[in-house]
Amino acid sequence: MLDNPFILEPFKSKEFFCDREQETEEIIRNIVNGRNTTLISPRRLGKTGLIFRIFEEIKNRNLPYETIYADISDTLSVEDFIRVLSNAVVAKLKNHQRITAFFRALRGIRPLLGLDPITGAPQVSFTFADDNQKLSTLNDVMGYMEAYPQKIVFAIDEFQQIREYDGVDMEAVLRKHIQHLHNVRFIYCGSKKHTMTDMFTNAKKPFYESTSFCYLTKLPVPVYAAFIREKFESAGKSIDSESIEFILQWTKVHTYYTQRLCNEVFAVTGNKVDRDDINKSIQTILDSERERFREIRRLITKAQWKMLCAISAEDNVRQITSSTFLSKYGISSGPTALRNIKALIDKELVLSNSDEDGTSYSVYNVFLSRYLAMGE
Ligand SMILES: Nc1ncnc2c1ncn2[C@@H]1O[C@H](COP(=O)(O)OP(=O)(O)OP(=O)(O)O)[C@@H](O)[C@H]1O
Ligand SMILES: [Mg+2]
Q1: Ligand 1 centroid to 333 CA: how many Å?
Q2: Ligand with minimal distance to 191 CA
Q3: pLDDT digits 0-9 by tens, 237-248
Q4: Structure confidence by residue, pLDDT tens digits, 240-275
Q5: What one-character DSSP code corresponds to residue 220?
Q6: pLDDT, tens digit, for every residue of 217-235?
Q7: Are 125 and 230 members of one domain?
Q8: Atom from ligand 1 closest to the CA of residue 260
Q9: Which of 2, 25, 281, 289 could make a disulfide contact with 264, Cβ separation 3.0–4.6 Å?
Q10: Are residues 256 and 273 in the same domain?
Q11: How many domains, the chain?
């Protein structure tokens, strides 16, 4: 039995990762030329996967960098930030002697090393006497990386989270520490485009113009189609072009949703994919998500739900306050539409996308949008 080639985790190996060659090259070029990168895309499109793809490529090419990854999505304070950063460093160091050397670099504080009860990964914990000690420890962590015998690529995932820390201008604090580092190249990764862009392009903000931008978009359809075909066929399952086209159209080429549907279709198919396999797979997925969608419905107002249904029915809405749109879906007024759309964007249920033609809105979760459009 072959493993299912449509992975649902961010990265396994190049073999199971579709494309992103250009982005990989671009970011590696930034690294070797001493530039930091800001990597932005909507959720579930493949940022985290791309980071690990880049790390793998750095290793394959024997480039002289240590790679470190920290996901700060669960952090709420400077203290959390230091802990997650330290854990990321410790996870790389592995051996005891090097960890002891790292701890020695953190002056005036005694970190404790334990094991995560669930994952078994090493966990550092700190007890800080006051805010000054936190800032000096942060300084020491950065100092340790600066003095590290090898150059470091440090990817900080969900970077926009630093704006949620109470009582501290974390951007200013970090910028102050980071701008003097020569030994570390950063990849700042985030899905909240508005916040991320403001951090790095607003002249009044500490990180202004300090990085090179990489906007991740959907995979090109022909490239993804060829990947899907190859994965089915090398497992002895044939699939025709219409089926692939149908899958990509149904999932709107949004990576996670495409992988999930292909994973399901692969699981139910014998040696030839037919339309029935795809329909059954769609049904299985929507069935498994139904309870979660009902939960969403309970958590938002009736008017917001109505707006979500309207956007699903249209697929992609540009004229959110036009009288045609409002009257078609019984929305009382333009201001009501704007208020509801804002609430839905804040809850990450709707994605707003701005381009040269203006702003358009779509339902963020592709499965939810299909479920709603089917009028369930
Ligand atoms: N290039 C790719 N080839 C195949 N599958 C991919 C690729 N990129 C992403 N995926 C799939 O999409 C899923 C989402 O990717 P990933 O977690 O990297 O997205 P993300 O942009 O970091 O999302 P989030 O903002 O929610 O953290 C992965 O779990 C994987 O299944
Ligand atoms: Mg991610």
Answers
A1: 38
A2: 1
A3: 999 999 999 999
A4: 999 999 999 999 999 999 999 999 999 999 999 999
A5: P
A6: 999 999 999 999 999 999 9
A7: no
A8: 31
A9: 281
A10: yes
A11: 3
